[in-house]
Amino acid sequence: xxxxxxxxxxxxxxxxxxxxxxAVSKTHPTEAVIAALAAGQTMFGENRVQEAATKFPGLRAxxxxxxxxxxxxxxxxxxxxxxxxxxxxxVLDRPKLADAIADAIQREGRxxxxxxxxxxxxxxxxxxxxxxxxxxxxxxxxxxxxxKLAGLMCIPPADGDPAPHFAWLAAxxxxxxxxxxxxxxxxxxxxxxxxxxxxxxxxxxxxxxRE
Length: 211
Ligand SMILES: *Cc1c(COP(=O)(O)O)cnc(C)c1O
Prior knowledge:
By secondary structure, this protein is an alpha/beta fold. It has a single domain (2-206), classed as Alanine racemase (TIM Barrel, Alpha-Beta Barrel), CATH 3.20.20.10. It is 44% helix and 19% strand. It contains 9 helices and 9 strands. The protein has helices at 2-11, 30-38, 49-62, 79-85, 95-108, 131-145, 163-175, 189-194, 204-207; strands spanning 20-24, 43-46, 67-70, 88-92, 113-119, 129-130, 149-154, 180-182, 199-202. Strands 1, 2, 3, 4, 5, 6, 7, 8 and 9 form a 9-stranded parallel sheet that branches. Helix 4 (79-85) packs across helix 5. The radius of gyration is 16 Å and the shape is globular. Bound molecules: pyridoxal-5'-phosphate (PLP). Residues 24, 26, 47, 71-72, 155, 185-187, 201-205 line the site of pyridoxal-5'-phosphate. The site of pyridoxal-5'-phosphate (PLP) has 14 residues, from strand 9 and helix 9.
């Protein structure tokens, strides 16, 4: 996996260490995470706060370099648990969730990095702020969270070429002076790296198929 990322960086004229791999371990057992840790992987992504909370805290004690991204749709009533355990929350996508996260940061005295998720394909079934509202929402979040608002995240439509969506997100991040671009999964991370991804979220290509 690391070789494929380095090759994609080279092809895009970017430094081999310009892209961070987030290993998406959702649905896979703790043993799979332990094996990845042994292979030198430190950054992981989980969809469900509950699942992350059972898998990660125990491992962290022995692996202080370990980092956790929450990458799946977050309910407001789970915001506090997410703020407690995550290093980055990739899925800030609506004002109510921004309120819940701000409240949780205050109560927990802990402040993960945040990414605004944009629904780049404006798909009805998908999470993310609609593209037409993205600039306004990002500006509001930046004013509210300051440098803790680190960047943007997207999941492009499953059909069609993801490249224009990745390029759209990169332009949007540049407009707002944001440094992190979490985009690209097992099927499209090379295209995302060519468009400036700083973090790729890869599950299947590392851990195999999910049940
Ligand atoms: C599951 C998931 C991934 C990883 O997808 P793969 O196709 O298995 O690499 C990445 N991002 C999000 C938000 C996911 O839910």
